[in-house]
Amino acid sequence: xxxxxxxxxxxxxxxxxxxxxxxxxxxxxxxxxxxxxxxxxxxxxxxxxxxxxxxxxxxxxxxxxxxxxxxxxxxxxxxxxxxxxxxxxxxxxxxxxxxxxxxxxxxxxxxxxxxxxxxxxxxxxxxxxxxxxxxxxxxxxxxxxxxxxxxxxxxxxxxxxxxxxxxxxxxxxxxxxxxxxxxxxxxxxxxxxxxxxxxx
Amino acid sequence: xxxxxxxxxxxxxxxxxxxxxxxxxxxxxxxxxxxxxxxxxxxxxxxxxxxxxxxxxxxxxxxxxxxxxxxxxxxxxxxxxxxxxxxxxxxxxxxxxxxxxxxxxxxxxxxxxxxxxxxxxxxxxxxxxxxxxxxxxxxxxxxxxxxxxxxxxxxxxxxxxxxxxxxxxxxxxxxxxxxxxxxxxxxxxxxxxxxxxxxx
DNA sequence: ATCGCTGTCTACCATATGGTAGAAAGAGTG
DNA sequence: CACTCTTTCTACCATATGGTAGACAGCGAT
Lengths: 200, 200
Hints:
homodimer; mainly alpha; Tetracycline Repressor, domain 2; 0% strand
């Protein structure tokens, strides 16, 4: 029985991100995950000693992935606030629609137990602070609409994750999920956020 | 034993809205609900024959409540698009922060089974259509930024529900949840949405 | 007083789920 | 080949959960 599979651990992580993110942590059983990976439940428990520790690993991996994407986007963008915001939204958009579970998982954090939530919050904290400081500077310089920078970060975040994760909302307005529909969605989303941030 | 309680059915509904909305449908057990109401699980099952039918009733009630709030706000506002948008956001804001579960429940719909989701979607459909048509007209008249009206509805929706339900996002930017903090939050939220919709 | 209806509870049940124990199977090493 | 280490699986277990059956108590009507 002990045949070595390709890379069981990361397959379990990947499946868990999708399942937890799409259906919610509580709604997913270890058997569900095992079923997707094509393995017995006990194999999951071999790699992650409990469902809770699996969740921790999943959150960790998600944080790392997203951080890398955002980091790269910011680095590559010119030093102009609207261009940077656009770059970040654009960078997050692709993984978000390809794997809605990714951002769905981040959103799931609100419902998790405080210890789990706090661990992810701490991980994200430096990003938030950097973004807040940056927006604050640019507002002071008149290159962004004057507002509370922290709140603008939060608003941009909920707008992007919301539109990316709530397929129901898009279905309600009969948005076509075709390739061109997605391109259009991305550009309208960017315009929406930029319009909200542009100086008056 | 058969003493009549005040209004068990509606107490169960109310508790269920909060619990389902805050923790997610799957994460809430009938015992949890019964515990909050102060009643035995079987009493819950007496009023609602199954957890699924309870969910239906909860969704129905939520839809009716929110519809009434929005309807009233639109009716009372002057016939000017930005004022109407502001009125709706303002009207939804109060119940949203007082009972995060309300909007949290709406957001939960994405994770529910298609039959449940569809029932709520159908209920909301007429509102969406009216809003879309209205925004479309006002855009054509140049009183709103020109964009896809349906998407604007979706974006405004996810922005408002997102900021109202994701307390984690607000905690991450260290937003004070005091009375004045909430007032400030409301006005910044409105400004954000209006700035995104104002004609260029 | 008794009858029946309504609402609530106690006693169970079947199933699903997270988790434990330990066997077996393959691969590398002496 | 024998031995060990890693990985996977089969066999269970305890608990939680949605749901059923039926007893019991208050209340209005006859």
